[in-house]
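Note to self: keep these together.
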Amino acid sequence: MANLNLDRHSNTYPFIDPGRFRGSLVGQTALVTGAGRGIGHSIALAFAQAGANVVCLARTRKEIDQTVTHIAQCGYPEAMAVSVDVACLSEISQAIASIKSKFGHVDILINNAGIDRIGSMQYETDFQAWWKVFEVNLMGPAALIHQILPDMISRKQGIIINIGSRNAIDNHPFMTAYSASKTALLRFHQCLKLELRDTNVYTFYVQPGDVTTSLMDGTYDPEELAKLPRLQAMISSMQDTIKSHNSDSSWLAANTCVMLAADVDARLLSGLYIDANQDLSQLLAEARKGKSGIIKQGKMYSLKVDVL
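Structure:
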């Protein structure tokens, strides 16, 4: 079976250009986790530009206050900052209650918050820190969906977007916690899609591209590098990439998310693994072919194991 040969992008492009969706989400409320910096900051601004009220959620209050201020200065609709640790279930419940008291409901949930831990299982000195990656990257998104989903289903309207990683489908050493948590989130997303049939609630999983973020800050033990030359080489390569600024724009992921939320045709991609680097207009054209297309026939963009 032939493979798709889609154009690739490192920045926004005409099909996801924000001008296409300006004002398209007026009256809707988007909740963005990890909205204080990096990809999350851009996602919050992109949804505000599309007309949505935006709830900016993160642990660091100063950062999300700055995002809210930025939105206000641009003259976009109302924004709200909520300081929450997505790994704390009680804080999530309190946050959702305050959001509902202000906006009534959440129409769009973007689970962007994430952390990493780089190192070997052999020399791991703090297993709780290793497990914390699962609490933030998997439990947090699942808990937020658990809180918001019943209301979305009752209103027959909702968009869920999980920011994933290419690590979910590729194997990498020294990233067991991060890769496994993002893989689990992908499987969660694909199973949830089956539950959401006929509800008019759609779930998406987006690999955002190689964006320079602070994700790897403080995620590895410098003393461990001396013990494992392979780990040292991997860290050096990642740092060189960051220093070279040879990375994808955060606006690629941000505008991709808005397109998925605003364009009705994007619902054909619900339940799939979406690579933001790939041209979405071309991917949609193939998805429209349904059972006769290569995506359905090859069960592509889905987490699976081929066996004899």
